[in-house]
Design goal:
601 residues; alpha/beta; Rossmann fold; two-stranded antiparallel sheet
Length: 601
């Protein structure tokens, strides 16, 4: 029977079943003993929730390890260090110890692992490798702890990271390690049954510290811990496997420092909280972060088999995407306006940096330089395949600085840097095209004068121009795309309004109302006299038939105001609508193109 469960798949299933049972038992025990997390202003949950879910994860992992996993020195050391961190977290859950005391406990756990020779071999210096390993273990442990801020988030992200590690173990022929991580995955998924939204139990510090330390330590057993072919693989793959907690921790730490807050204190300013503030449900926000973690895990598998320059190009593209997402999320207001103003008054340097980043011109130039490099490199890859060992590589290297300078100069001349990203339009596309064409012509002319264009491929420059235009246009469209997929938050508690007119004017009014939450309007639907528009949906809002009972529509939607979005309304119809509004105690306003409401009274 035990031989059957030596298969990683069946071991994960057995671990999953045990975790489900143990989590159920731990939840009941925590409730009976009153070990629950009470709602707080700086916490996300809104009702008392059982704690100590980490006990179920820990016990499942230890028991399944004892029964099914072959014992090695490395696995015993990792489990010993993880056990110590579990105990430190358990003490914190019960007695609420100081942050520095937890940090001391983390250093002891690091000493256990490093003392038995498990070290990231990233450099030729043993001392430096020890310091990097300590920073890695403590950093990831605390990153998972910080990530545990929304139902199912830390658990699911950790499971996805563990899946990525499992693929790495399998590909490297490390079957004992694969069995260990499979047991761990089953424990996480079994706990996730109760922890996913709406969660009935939290893992607590005993869980987050054990899970974070176990994940970070498991990386030390993989081929990516220092024995892989590529230096980029050694550095990048562990970071990609745990990208979401690393990104969230860095993002929150930087922004809290800017606003003068302690990085270690709780708060509702994490990536997940900002996604919810943008209009996503809690579940969808968590699922979106699951998607990013999965994508990063898949990318880590590809990088292991790529050459150095290809790895750098792929990582560069991914970093650009994450940077743009970070810039967009940083715009979401999570602190009170008074606190922001006070922070800027007390920290003039931070205010300068924020003002600089708001203008984004330096960021745009740096971004475009990277995009020019990636587009030029991709064009060589598409035409010649792997070209690093050929003379085309030397052509690429000596011509790249010329292309970067001349393309940036062309973008400046044609006005690429005068645009505002969120208002990118077709006219801007024409500007981008002019900049790319001018830059390509100047680059070809420069190479002709300097090197007589000898051995350079004309096809490369055609492909490069196409890719660069797509990259520049795509980067500028990202904010507008985000505003469509993740619209900026608008007040759901503001004045409830119906928009009369489901045409272009009405759609524009809806966008303006949602983009300006300080106006305190909450659009609840459209009304239109065109029967063909009845029951249609515009940006999630239903269109009601204006030829029906307007007063009934107002009552049903609890409308407090109607905004007329078009001028071509007959005096008779306007009088009729005004009469209905008066009888229904509903305000009526006509909205001009500048979105300046004008009272009829």
């Amino acid at each position: 029977m035990l031989q059957l469960f030596s298969n990683p798949f069946f071991a994960a299933i057995a671990s999953f079943a045990l975790a489900v049972i143990l989590t159920f038992a731990v939840r009941g025990f925590a409730r009976r003993c009153g070990i629950v997390a009470a709602p707080k202003t700086d916490r996300w949950h809104k009702r008392p929730t059982a704690m100590l879910g980490g006990v179920a994860i820990f016990l499942t992992t230890v028991l399944m390890y004892a029964l099914l996993v072959p014992k090695t020195k490395e696995s015993l050391v990792i489990l010993a260090g993880g056990t110590f961190l579990f105990l430190v977290g358990l003490i914190d859950d019960i007695l609420h110890i100081k942050p520095y005391q937890k940090l001391i406990g983390q250093f002891i756990g690091v000493a256990v692992v490093v003392g038995f020779g498990l070290v990231l071999q990233w450099t030729d210096s043993e001392i430096f490798n020890l310091a990097i390993t300590a920073f890695w273990l403590i950093g990831i442990t605390n990153a998972i702890n910080l990530l545990d801020n929304m139902d199912g988030l830390a658990t699911g992200i950790s499971a996805i990271a563990a899946f990525s590690l499992a693929f790495g173990f399998g590909a490297g022929g490390q079957f004992d390690e694969l069995l260990l991580i499979s047991v761990f995955i089953g424990a996480l998924l079994g706990f996730l049954v109760y922890n996913f939204n709406p969660a009935s139990i939290f893992m607590g510090d005993c869980g987050s510290m054990f899970v974070g330390f176990f994940l970070a330590s498991s990386v030390l057993m993989t081929q990516v811990g220092g024995r892989s072919r590529s230096v980029v693989s050694v550095l990048a793959i562990p970071a990609l496997i745990l990208l979401v907690p690393i990104f969230d921790t860095t993002f929150v730490t930087v922004l809290r420092k800017i606003w003068g807050r302690k990085a270690s204190e709780g708060g509702r300013d994490h990536t997940s909280h900002r996604l919810v503030a943008l209009g996503l449900s809690e579940r969808n926000a968590v699922l979106m972060l699951y998607g990013f973690a999965l994508l990063a895990g898949i990318l880590s598998l590809f990088i292991a088999n790529l050459q150095l320059t290809q790895s750098l190009a792929l990582i560069g593209f991914f970093v650009i995407v994450l940077t743009i997402i970070g810039v967009y999320l940083a715009k979401v207001k999570v602190y009170q306006e008074q606190e922001e103003e006070l922070a800027l008054q007390n920290r003039a340097a931070f205010g300068f940096l924020l003002n600089l980043s708001h203008k984004r011109r330096i960021f745009e130039v740096i971004l475009d330089a990277i995009l020019i490099t990636l587009a030029y490199y991709a064009s060589y890859i598409l035409i010649f395949g792997s070209f690093e060992e050929s003379e085309n590589w030397m052509l690429f290297v000596k011509s790249l600085p010329i292309l970067i300078v001349l393309h940036l100069f062309s973008f400046l001349v044609v006005g690429v840097y005068r645009g505002i990203w969120r208002y990118t339009s077709i006219q801007d596309f024409v500007t981008f095209l002019k900049g790319v064409v001018l830059g390509s012509l100047l680059s070809i002319l420069a190479l002709l004068l300097l090197y007589r264009f000898e051995y350079f491929s004309r096809t490369v420059f055609i492909v490069n121009g196409t890719l660069l235009f797509m990259a520049i246009a795509g980067s500028r469209l990202t904010f507008r795309l985000f505003r469509q997929l993740l619209p900026m938050p608008f007040s759901r508690e503001g004045r409830r309004v119906l928009i009369y007119g489901a045409g272009d004017g009405g759609e524009m009014i809806l966008r303006e109302l949602r983009n300006n939450p300080e106006w305190n309007y909450n659009p609840v639907g459209f009304v239109d006299d065109d029967p063909l528009k009845k029951d249609k949906v515009i940006h999630g809002l239903k269109v009601f038939d204006g030829n029906g009972s307007l007063s009934a529509i107002c009552r049903k939607n609890e409308a407090q105001e109607i905004l007329i979005s078009f001028r071509a309304i007959s005096p008779e119809r306007l009088f009729e609508v005004r009469k209905i509004c008066q009888n229904s105690n509903v305000s009526l306003k006509r909205v001009q193109l500048k979105i300046e409401p004008v009272d009829f009274e």
